[in-house]
Design brief:
Length: about 300
Amino acid sequence: MSLMLKKRAARAAGAAGAARPARRRQTRLALMLLAPALLALFVMRVLPMFVAVSQSFQQTSLSSGTTSFVGFANYSYLLTSPDFHSVLLVTLLFNVVLNPLIVVLATAAAVLLAQRIPLSGLWRSLVFVPAAVPVPVVALIWSTALQPDGLVNAALKAVGLPPQPFLTSGHQAAFSIGLMVTWGALGYWMVFILAGLNDIPAELYEAASLDGAGWWARLWYVTLPLLKRPMTFVLMACTVGSFLLFAPIQVLTKGGPEGSTNLIMYDIFNRSYLLNDLGVGQAEVVVLLVLLSAIVAAQFRMLREEKP
């Protein structure tokens, strides 16, 4: 018996030894195939991050053009600047209102269009169409629609309401930008929620129906709990996208009026390339990265699925 066990152990050791070169070959092949993508990721994502951190500790003189190390002076300037405080406040308020709204509307659209309604495929396509339009084009469309004599004010006039200033009002400009972003993003994020709906087993709905649960009960106790993961993903992705929002601000308002739409990405562009203060702009990039990482981590922690 012991001899047989020794033979089996020897064969197992030999098989394991023969498998190691195969695994090494597979690993080398995988690395070779991934190398172009990893190199592009390093060059376009990782390297610029290190450059931004390095330049955030430097300052370039506008008179001589020389660059000098200034330590944390750029960060100190930002943290004590009322203008930067205003930018942070506008950005945070914009995200606090916009991102949950997009998640709720995308979920509602997905749940509605997942029902057996006539021409559901057509309605899904129509909702998704704005997501296929480039963001600058969407901004130009809404810029035309929100003009004082544009389509939206014409519709308001037709129902007896007074015209609105929209993009030229400090109280309405951020709302107008949010409306445009929601219109463009709703269909895109709806697709992810629809994918989550398709993953919910039909047996759960059948069991709930047999227990006497109506449509609303099935929604609250079956659908929404099981959509937690896709909704978490959509919320985090919306947060990242909203913090990095730039093109609509550049096209429509350029941060105005009265700084009401001066979101942090536009302020970074303004400081770095219009005011030529690259050091402070890069410090702002680092602050944005840290803030965004903290917010996304907090969202993931609050909305993650509870482990059994």
